[in-house]
Amino acid sequence: GQQLNQSPQSMFIQEGEDVSMNCTSSSIFNTWLWYKQDPGEGPVLLIALYKAGELTSNGRLTAQFGITRKDSFLNISASIPSDVGIYFCAGKNYGGSQGNLIFGKGTKLSVKP
Amino acid sequence: NAGVTQTPKFRVLKTGQSMTLLCAQDMNHEYMYWYRQDPGMGLRLIHYSVGEGTTAKGEVPDGYNVSRLKKQNFLLGLESAAPSQTSVYFCASSATLEAFFGQGTRLTVV
C-alpha cells in the first residue's frame, strides 16, 4: 500500500531558528496537505498544495509540492514557542474510488525559549 | 460552526464488548474517514467513504466495521473489542481536497 516517510521524527530547536521537514512517498499524489496537532486536539490544516512545483506560504510557514509529485517540504521561519506540536504531512488522490488520505508519522517539534 | 463532531469523547470497554463511535459533519462533505492514532505511529487510516452508501478499507481495517447510511454520518463499529484497539480515534471529512478533523475519541480496552 501507499506509505509516506516523514522526517525528521523529532526536532529540538531554539526560539528564532528556522525549521525544515519533509515527506516522501512511493506513490504519486494529486494533493499534499500539511497539518499541525496540539496535545489533546485533532489535526488542523496548515497548508494545502494542489499541483507539482507549487510553493505556498501561510504566514511564517512555506510548503512546496515536489516536481515528481512524490514529495513535499514544510519550512517554518523564525520559530516561536507556540509552534510546538506534531506536524503531519498527508497525501491524497481523489476522484472515482480513490478517496483515501494517507498520513506520515509526524514530526514532533519542541522549541526552547 | 460545528464542523466535525465525534461522540463519545472518552470510553472504557472491557475485552469482548462492542461499541459504535459516531462521526457527524455539517459541511455536506462527500468524503469521510476514520483514523486511529497511536504513539509513534501517526494517523493510520482504518476505513473511509467516498459518498453516502459507500465504504472502503484503509490501512488497518481488521476488527472494525463502518457504515455510511446518511451523508452526514460515518459510524465506526467494534464488534468484539481487544486491548490492541486501545487508541485515539479521529474522524475527518472533506469535499475533495482539504480534510477537517474532529476532536477525537479516546478509547481504552481493558
Please describe the structure with a list of short key phrases separated by commas or semicolons.
heterodimer, A: 113 residues, mainly beta, 6-stranded mixed beta sheet, 5-stranded antiparallel beta sheet, globular, B: 110 residues, 53% strand
Radius of gyration of chain B: 13 Å
Q: How many helix segments of chain A?
A: 0
Low-confidence region ranges of chain B: none
Number of helical elements of chain B:
0
Shape of chain B: globular
State Rg of chain A.
Answer: 14 Å
What would you call the quaternary organization?
Answer: heterodimer
Number of extended strands of chain B: 11
Order of helices and strands of chain B: EEEEEEEEEEE
Low-confidence spans of chain A = none
Q: Separation of termini of chain A?
A: 41 Å
Strand coverage percent of chain B? over 45%
User: Approximately how much helix is present in the residues of chain A?
Assistant: under 10%
Share of helix of chain B, binned: under 10%
Class by alpha and beta content of chain A: mainly beta
Mean pLDDT of chain B: 94
Coarse shape of chain A: globular
Helix/strand structural class of chain B:
mainly beta
Which pair has the most extensive contact?
A: A-B, 28 and 29 residues
Q: SSE order of chain A, as H and E?
A: EEEEEEEEEEE
Structural notes for this entry:
- The complex is a heterodimer of chains A (113) and B (110).
- The radius of gyration of chain A is 14 Å and the shape is globular.
- Chain A contains no helices and eleven strands.
- The termini of chain A are far apart.
- In chain A, the strands form two sheets. In chain A, strands 2, 4, 5, 9, 10 and 11 form a six-stranded mixed β-sheet that branches. A five-stranded antiparallel β-sheet of chain A has the order 1-3-8-7-6, with no helix packed on it.
- With 113 residues, chain A is mainly beta.
- With 110 residues, chain B is mostly beta strands.
- Chain B contains no helices and eleven strands.
- In chain B, strands 2, 4, 5, 6, 9, 10 and 11 form a seven-stranded mixed β-sheet that branches. In chain B, strands 1-3-8-7 form a four-stranded antiparallel β-sheet, with no helix packed on it.
- Chain B is globular.
- The chains are: A mainly beta (113), B mainly beta (110).
- The interface between A and B is medium-sized, with 28 and 29 residues.
